[in-house]
Amino acid sequence: MLVSAKEMLEKAKAGKYAVGQFNINNLEWTKAILLTAQELNSPVILGVSEGAGKYMCGYETIVGMVKGMIKCLKITVPVALHLDHGSYEGAKACINAGFSSVMFDGSHYPIEENIAKTTELVNACNVLGISLEAEVGSIGGEEDGVVGAGECADPNECKMIADLGVTMLAAGIGNIHGKYPANWAGLNFDVLGAISEKTGDMPLVLHGGTGIPEDMIKRAISLGVSKINVNTECQLSFAAATRAYVEAGKDLQGKGFDPRKLLAPGFEAIKATVKEKMELFGSVNKA
Ligand SMILES: [Zn+2]
């Protein structure tokens, strides 16, 4: 069964740990993440970008796949199926398709318009018991063609959006999607501290979890981050393991070309990455 992210994130905020959001791209990705969460007895959030939604043949296909997998694999830990960086239309489509959580990324709108659209979605989500993530201050880097400058969010604007009744809030604190450049300035903990102070119990979300040093992750969690998004890191580990398999010529040996064999090293690599993150975030045995 899919659940809203509300309860798992409130527990995480109170318990000073974070729940990982791992983005999915296909069956192997989803299966690897669900099995790892179950093995580690950790709550988990499956993230779906609008681009990945199209790739996987639409939100209804994804809901069917995830629900079927939870049943077949006997997954009992809390699982939220979450739209990542949704548009207003995308959020509504996912609400209708059966997602248990959505993000509306209105960070590129003027704050008044972000507030108006977020308010409408708060009402729609509350009726259905779906969790809603809002964003203030765009996240740096590129995601599905949207390029953010990596600005820091205004703590007062964060409070305005938090007060609308959203479940969790993503705020830019110098974090970036994708790989971090060598000259990256690091997370801005002064801004994070100010946002945390203004927004109280609101679980905060850290996007761009790939490549942030462990000590910064831990400090961010201590300052109120309760959800951390990981996407690129699973892609990198999957690609590296698949490359090693092919470069070793294993696809040319026996039935090594069988997709179930060809994709197995990448599948195991995703599992290892997810395990490493869940241990770092402190969500193991918190299901
Ligand atoms: Zn993001």
What can you tell me about this protein's structure?
The protein is globular. 48% of the residues lie in helices and 17% in strands. The chain has an eight-stranded parallel beta barrel, surrounded by nine helices. It is α/β, with parallel strands linked by helices and 287 residues long. It has a single domain, classed as Aldolase class I (TIM Barrel). It binds zinc ion (ZN). The site of zinc ion has 6 residues, from loops.
Identify the notable features of this structure and list them briefly.
287 residues; TIM Barrel; 17% strand; alpha/beta; 12 helices; two-stranded antiparallel ribbon; binds zinc ion
Entry summary:
By secondary structure, this protein is α/β, with parallel strands linked by helices.
Helix/strand order, N-terminal first: HEHEHHEHEHEEEHEHEHEHHH
The CATH architecture category equals Alpha-Beta Barrel
- Give me the secondary-structure category: alpha/beta
Bound molecules: zinc ion
Would you spell out the secondary-structure blueprint of this structure?
Blueprint: H1 6-15, E1 19-23, H2 27-39, E2 44-49, H3 50-55, H4 59-72, E3 79-86, H5 88-97, E4 101-104, H6 111-128, E5 131-136, E6 141-143, E7 146-148, H7 155-162, E8 168-171, H8 189-199, E9 204-206, H9 214-222, E10 225-230, H10 232-247, H11 259-262, H12 264-281
The chain binds zinc ion (ZN).
Zinc ion binds next to loops.
